[in-house]
Sequence to fold (545 residues):
Amino acid sequence: MTQTARKHPDQAHYGPGQRLLRLIPHALAGVLAAALFLGVADLVSRLFGPTSSTLVALGQAVIRLSPSWLQEFAISAFGNSDKLVLYISMGVVGTVVAALIGVLARSRMKLALGAFSLVALILLAAVLMRPENSAVDAVPTLIGAGLGLLALLLLGGAATGWLRPGDPHPAPHDLETRSGRSRAEESAHSRRRFIGLATAGTAIAAGSIAFGRSVNAFGRDIGSAAAQLVLPSPAVPAAAIPEAASIGVEGVPPFVTPNDSFYRIDTALAVPELAPEDWTLRIHGMVEEEVTIDMNELLELPLEEHHITLTCVSNPVGGDLVGNATWLGYPIHELLARARPTGDADMVLSRSVDGWTASTPLEVLTDEDRESLLAVGMNGEPLPAQHGYPARLVVPGLYGFVSATKWVTELELTRFDEQTAYWTDRGWNARGPVLVASRIDVPKPLAEVAGEELVVAGSAWAQHVGVETVEVRLDDGDWESVELAAEVNTDTWRQWKHTFADVDSGRHSVTVRAINAEGEVQTGERRDSIPGSATGHHRIEFRVS
Fold:
């Protein structure tokens, strides 16, 4: 006699659509358990260091393990919003994984708890792998994981007993449960219990996330940390910026970029929190004398102020990952002179407090004609937190990925053939000299403009060499020289403008190129950023009315 296989209740009573709907409470249980885990861990992490946050550590691990092409795409596509996009992407993937664990808990709770624990262990490893973390930084993750497991057990159990009004009636032998209640009464009790637990879990998770470290990092008051630092007057003040340094065309960014508008590209999901009294800079490696300097000593030195433009190597052609500021700091070549580098050294490996590294040619940092600074001020204020507070490197003529280390705490004298840095490990140029470049700011792409006089304006830069000439052409016509604003110094950008008269109505294009003071003409060859900056002429299209 053939034995008939026993069907799961869902197979016996429900169609595919109904079975899918019945999985929703279980998926929601998994998502809420994960949200409690990460939210509570993020909130507790505020009592510890910034990288003790599970979310931050996970995001940093994703950045560290991502291939360079993916990181380059994120920076090029999203610019200053790349970190927010990363958090959103992590949230989407995490929600799917948590929902699957919740569905698994419906029939195999022990297996689901094991899967949840495995994910927690992976996240704990991400926290402990951070170079600046210690064992105590595991506490937020452990607390969050414990609450998450408890939430999965309680919510998953309540969801399993869920039987909604209108569902098919149970078999006669299932009409009463061990509690003495009917199945309908038991299901109603499970629904109320699930809704109560879910409501409480949602409130706790939402509150934890709202007041946790990760969301707070996006809404941080950039002046709050820097309020502790009082900057001295510069011993060498910056030269006055002449009015002629601005071209006077509306739509062209100001010559000095405000702090809150200055581009930010780095790998730190949470801005490092480093108090001035806790900051030191260690200079070591291939030196005759190791040097350590603290903030009090740094501020007592004769600080200098210089106008310097910084550019990101990931800046696309015509992009906005470039800015000009007035920086206050101490010459790096003076600090290195104290340590007396040995003759074999040719590279300075700078390290941030969060472990990020950059490789800078020693000959650049010891060049007395180049205003390379250990900077503490930006545009008359202490460095904003996201721009390196309390101290960072500013080196004109090199892209930031090999020079502009924020939150810097260490300079190691070494060699290019012995050590590598964060981005050079990912295939980028180890030395990173800035290339001559230019951008059209006015008119905007696809704009409609009047045709009597077409004003074209923008910016050009060739840091530490200087911009000599800028040329533009309308459509495929001849190159024409433009009017250049006054040059403040060779380390800053220059604004420019040009007027085309009697342009015919219809669709047109404008292209720009710059020529530096050494006669190098900006190349029109298009290439990607890797290994050393995107190239090509910036060209926009517009319509003349």
Remarks:
- Residues 183-211 form the longest helix (29 residues).
- Confidence is low (pLDDT under 50) at residues 1-12, 163-178, 219-223.
- The longest strand covers residues 506-516.
